[in-house]
Amino acid sequence: MLRNWKLSVIATVGLWLPAGALAQPTLSVAPTQVTFLQSTSGSPPPSQTVSITSAGGAVPVSITGGGATWLSHSLSAATTPAILTLQVLSVGLAEGTHTTTLLVNGAGASNTPRTIAVSITVTGIPPTNVNPSQLTFFYSSGGVVPDAQTFVLANTAASYSLSSDRSWLFATIDISLGAPVGYVTVDPSNLLPGVYTGLVTVTYNTSPVSYQLVSVTLQIDSTNSLWNVSGPLNFTYKSGDPPPASQSLAVSYASMIFFSVEVNSPGNWLKVDTTSGITPAVIQVSVEPTGLAIGTYSGTITLTSFNAVAPAIIGVNLTVSGAPALTAAPLALDFRAAAGASPPPAKTFTVTSTPATNFQIRVAGGSWLSVIPETGTTPATITVSANPSGLTAGTYRASIIIQTPGATAGGQLVAVSLTVTGSVSLRVDPPDPIRFDVAAGGSAPTPRVVTVSAAAPASVALASSQPWLTVSPASGTTPLTVSIGVVPAGLAAGVYNGVITVSAPGAAQTVQLAVTLTITATGGGGSGGSSGGAPGSPSIRELSNGAGLLRDFAPGSIMFIYGRDFGPREMIVAPANRQFETSLGGVTVTMGGIRSPLISVSSTQILALVPFELAGRTQMNVQVQYQGLASEAVSVPFLETAPVFLTADGSGRGQAAAVNANGSINTPSARAPKGSIVSFYLTGGGLFEREVLTGAILEATSLRLRSSVRFFIGGLQADMQYAGQAPGNAAGILQFNVYVPLELIGGAAVPVTARIGEQFSQPGVTMAIE
Fold first, then answer.
1. Model pLDDT for residues 699-752, shown as the tens digit of each residue
2. Contact 317, 296 (CB under 8 A)
3. pTM for the complete prediction?
4. Dihedral of alpha carbons 518, 519, 521, 522, sign
């Protein structure tokens, strides 16, 4: 699920945040109240729909809440605009009014969730249908509106009220004949040719309340006096049952004519046994409802002939009802086992429904998972077993899907995870990040010593992620004493980050130890060898990728340039239209001879985007020009990838700029549940799978990175749903949708790390987990 988050820059402090925290879309539902009417012995009432829209951009939505076994809805997740269909299930409700509330949750919407109040009134007295219970109107486009039709009220002694459920249908009371009768009219002027159905309800103020229902059918361009057909036709189908039997449609005309048959039904569920015939004739009509969601479907059969004045349009209605709603508990099972060990104890969950129904179970995503039984009748207890045989260390996930027979969607899902641990259980002491501080040009500091241990003797290998970072020895058997050092020679002032990876290949275990080297300037003309040009010329003091003074850059990175005389005294922020320009307020920046798109400029700070066209280089020169004057060029290394987290306060440290699955900003007071998806925002991911234009605002929602991506939360590798361009943002602003591992210990500041290609993100970035 991708969110169309706009990333905005507050250029005065260089702070990047998801714009959902600044200007978020708003969510709307209509109507906000839905009511149904049913008798204890009657069929379920017709389905009703709710429109879900948003202002300020499309919003992913999920529908939760309710819990009522008598209500089914067509959506669990969608993107606005969307239509939610509500259907009452026949579950033997007691007399009275039953209510429930649905929540429409919009990811990133400022006013989420929206509520839909749903009620059903059940009466023990069946709705009375008399004199007549069904009215049919015929209308030809452009012709005369059909005359009103009437029905006799069933109970004239009680007070009553009338209502209709369609905008084209009107009902009033006519007392001109002495006794009150229902007076029904239709307005087909804004309707297309087809068959329309509606319902007039007379509510009597009796004790208990009673009702009278009159079904109304409006056929537009459907017939003329020369055709004689036996429709409309009505089919009913319960999900999981065999399709209903075919029905016969008798067709005749004032004379013998040849006719053609055309069928129209969304989803092609309506079938006929012939495409032509000669009157009089009988057409066999059938339906194929398998796979259709619960609801009422309307189709038409159109008969045309060169000899007929007008076509005949016969309406066909199909009502699909659902099996009882299934409930599973618990909805998640967690297994743990050591590699090569015996399977863990089996676990169980229950399946229930009201009333009882048959069910079937299938497993998705895990050959290591088995369930007994795979079919049965509710209520039932299901036994789940996990077999780690042949699996290496890691976390495996699968789903158990419980459905009623014949259903292709819906049902219940039980999430299952299996964590396989190695028998080695590596540990590094001390586990905290190692920090070195040295003055520019100074000698190497004293190496630090750590100990690698395990529950049992194990062979381990050690590797460094940076050329300036050393580790000795590179391999050995636990317990092992390891010396970690740095070589600062040739490095400019700044902060450098590296990682020592300790692995036990036989057990597929990995531990990472972060190392930070800070080189402080000894005075003089600034880092990178630049001391500025002539008085008044732009002068570059420092470059940063947004994570402190880190100077690692890659295609698509954000570059912060600090210095003096860069541009106008007051900051100018570029409008984020469809493309950031390469000249802003008279300021230009070149990187490797290529002009860079500019986000903001001022006399002391510039925010620029590193061009994708520089890919493949190992070094680049950065130069600022303003009003004909240019700074000296500063040379910095250039990498394939240089991942940097965007953080909440813009410092490059602390709380990550991250969004929880419910659309809230991740903070210690709004923590992410384990197993949920959290969206993180980064830069410096390098090239995408296809070429993009530097500085362009990309609306793409599936533009993925070319380099491999790994994500760690609390030291554990996390599964990823998506890693690529953040939709609606400048090319190079990335969005990672990551599953929070179930086996984590929660906390307000759990460390997060991203690895893109061979490079790791900056240390010190955290998230909050329940």
1. 766 788 999 999 999 878 888 888 999 888 889 999 999 999 888 888 898 989
2. yes
3. 0.39
4. positive
